[in-house]
Design brief:
about 575 residues, alpha+beta, 21 strands, eight-stranded mixed β-sheet, about 20% strand, FAD/NAD(P)-binding domain, six-stranded antiparallel β-sheet, Flavocytochrome C3, Chain A, domain 1, globular
Amino acid sequence: MAETSWDHETDLLVVGTGAAGLTSAVVAANEGLKVLVIEKTDMYGGTTAFSGGVAWIPNNPLMKAAGIPDTPQDAVTYLKHNIGNRVAPAKLETFVEYAPVMTRYMTDNSEVKFQMMEDFPDYRPETPGGCKGGRSIDPKVFSGRKLKDFDKLRKRPGSLPGGVVGSVKELRRLAFFKSDPMGLLGVWTVIPRNIWNRIAGRQHISSGRALVARLRYTLQEKTVPLWLNTGLDELITEGGAVVGARVTRDGRSQTIRAKKGVVIAAGGFDHNSAMRRQYFDKATEKWVAGAYSSGAPGSMGDGIRAGQAVGAALDLMDDMWWMPSSNEPGAQAPTIHVFERGLPHVMIVNKRGKRFANEARPYNELGRVIYENDAPPAFMVFDNDYRSRYTVGTMLPGMTPERFIRDGYIKRADTIEDLARQTGIDAEGLKQQVVRFNTMAEAGRDDDFHKGESAFDRYAGDKSHKPNPCLGPIARAPFYAIEINAGDLGTKGGLLTNERAQVQREDGTVIGGLYAVGNSSACVVGDFYPGGGGTIGAAMTYGYLAAMHAAGKVGDPAKALSAAAE
């Protein structure tokens, strides 16, 4: 076999620019490695740039500073109880041990800064080891003017220039400005910040874009190159180990030698129709085409297929980061329904008019139920009390664009019977369900699906509504309905890795020089979603571990934790 002729040489090649890949690049550069980052599209940020940017980090430094109790043992108990044997215990334990270490490391050695979300509970806070708040942390707002290539930072399609800039915590309070106007006092700084943003062109950004920008700014300061329009074609091996990659940059094939390894952080296969059809057996053609996927457009499974071609094992390929979603007319991306499902005066039914789940349950769980059962499409049904008080998708309280009515995105009717006719829902089934739902709502207790009993449900609800913040009757006309489908924030399956993010073969042996993190890897939390930021927290932690291992710096977790606590 002819010896490879290399066009470029580096220590660590990072493929992908979401939180996982950029974290690997920052850590590797800080540890003295020469790093090259490549991105197949003309924009960087991956799916992280579309997200809230929240990271789920148990036992994190902000919790300790705020006096919120948590322990690694509690977090491991929580994960193992909810995941079972789906993931190797070593991977779960390493994640819990190193997540706070990674957070402290990034705070000390990069521009990445988080803030506390003390009232944001885990998604199953009542299960053993669960926590009522503090494990999810929020990236701080950042000024895009610091970036030399700010125009290349990905943003969600259809998002408006100069939109409201605020952390997840701030935007959550703003959403209740009609039902809880006093809550605005806690987030008053959002108003002058956004006014100044427009007047002075400060280009402040928040959420996932802020997290990506903070990582990118760190790489900019360290003069780490980032090549856009550079796609991974194949991995190059010698003696069974990965030593580099063949890429296409601006239409020209090039080879890159990576002396310390390649980190695959190229996302999942969110928009690869063939792979979606291969691994999901209940998919409709529209679903297969990714019509309800909020993953970045470059997520085509390139990294997963490249790893598979050199002998990597795959896992969790039939799972998603599920998200109930709808398709607004003219929108370039799905509308995701995160918290509005947990509010009073709304329920979700199937075509028979029957509820099939607790509407307030975590989006990953509800999305999976919609996909796996006979619900698709499901319908979110609500009344005028709901519409006048709460935000739905992109619609502010009381403001329902007539074009949405004309285009059929939202159905509006003066009676439940007419609403059923417009949507195709069984009229008698819907009438009976509304009667039962209203009886339970008046009593403040959901005997069917227990909506409002979990701390997470109540977080999603309206605390000013009594007796149950999540239950209110559907009684005041006009009535509304929106079709809801099983959308996703990205796929969850990928290259199987060990506790050091090294890619494994089917026999458990490691492919030398190859790492996988983020949605290119089989998720460390299996089919579970532990809490807000469960994707990004794990992605950044294993991005850190991959880089440290490549740099020869990963040692005893206990010593690392001790150092982080000092």
